[in-house]
Amino acid sequence: MRAALRKGIKNVEVIEMEKPSPAADEVLIAVKSCGICGSDIVRIQEENPRWDEIVLGHEFAGEIVAVGESVEGWKVGDRASAAPLMPCMKCDKCAQGNYSLCKGYSFIGSRVQGAFGEFLRVPAKNLVAIGNLSYDQAAFIEPITVCLHPILRLDNLLGKDVVVTGAGTIGLLAIQIFKAMGCREIVASDISEGKLEMAKAMGATIVCNPITEPLEDVCARELEDGAHVVFESSGAGPAKISAMQVARGRGSVLLVGTSHAPITFTAPQFEAITRKELNVVGSWMNYSAPFPGAEWTTAAWMMEAGLVKVDGLQTHTFPVEQIQNAYDVIYNNEELWAKVMINF
């Protein structure tokens, strides 16, 4: 089968690999679409030879082409996406339904071979039906669940003001979810004017480029008393600092973006957490009980219902044979891009 494998930093080649066979409790999926995630972007460019041995890719959808002997409820020809986490199901965290906290987990596309391969073994319990969604659309289920995991922990959002820092794929999806949940003002912050235009198209009511005007000033002017919720998706240090400043008293700050550099708060900046009694929520992955969780069925439903629209976020599409070109678009960063999709 065809598979895309890193061959050194920022170099990806399509090779031939042996086609896998499903175990008794697994299915074999013929992958049709797989999105490039931010974690894939990091792994292709970091100095870690491990990524020369693992086929990446975990945002995928495809068709079931083989079914293990003990699998029930799924058959050859069914169309599906799947949760990439494979928790141990033995530890106390798994018993509590906190699968994202499992320390003995495996993961499709980072610990076992992933969906930038033409065929993929998937545990049947991980499967998610995709209804009438296209394969490209269904590949967005996983990133939507990243947004839903912390948002579903919040109280009623009707009429609330929110700030979304970072208008990449996750931030743009979060904007649509907040709009669907009845939020009043949705402030989007990003350093890319092109991404801010996309944010407005997704439902942001106010946009801010913190290079030209601090987010704190925009929120002080546009929001009555700060944001009820701040969704931090960029991972950037300045955005995390601003998140604490623009949240209102007893507001919630959802920390979703991954940091890749040290972050230094001044004492007053950090004291904002205490003085405003903020609810700071860390969010890692996207699972709940019963596994894989309501995030997954809700994501598929929101797209089928038209509450989240992803076609405008898919800025580039490449066949797997051109996956190097796909990464070049991202690393060169000479044109506006959001989700870059790979097709088989």
Automatic annotation (TrEMBL):
Per UniProt, the keywords (alphabetical) are: Metal-binding, Oxidoreductase, Zinc
Enoyl reductase (ER) domain location, by residue? 8-342
Leader sequence residues: none
For molecular function, the Gene Ontology terms on record are: oxidoreductase activity, acting on the CH-OH group of donors, NAD or NADP as acceptor; zinc ion binding
Q: Has keyword ATP-binding? A: no
Q: Which cofactor does it need?
A: Zn(2+)
The record's listing under PROSITE patterns reads: ADH_ZINC
Top-level taxon: Bacteria
Q: Which family does it belong to?
A: Belongs to the zinc-containing alcohol dehydrogenase family.
Q: What is this protein called?
A: Galactitol-1-phosphate 5-dehydrogenase
Lineage, please? Bacteria, Pseudomonadati, Kiritimatiellota, Kiritimatiellia, Kiritimatiellales
What gene does the UniProt entry assign to this protein?
gatD
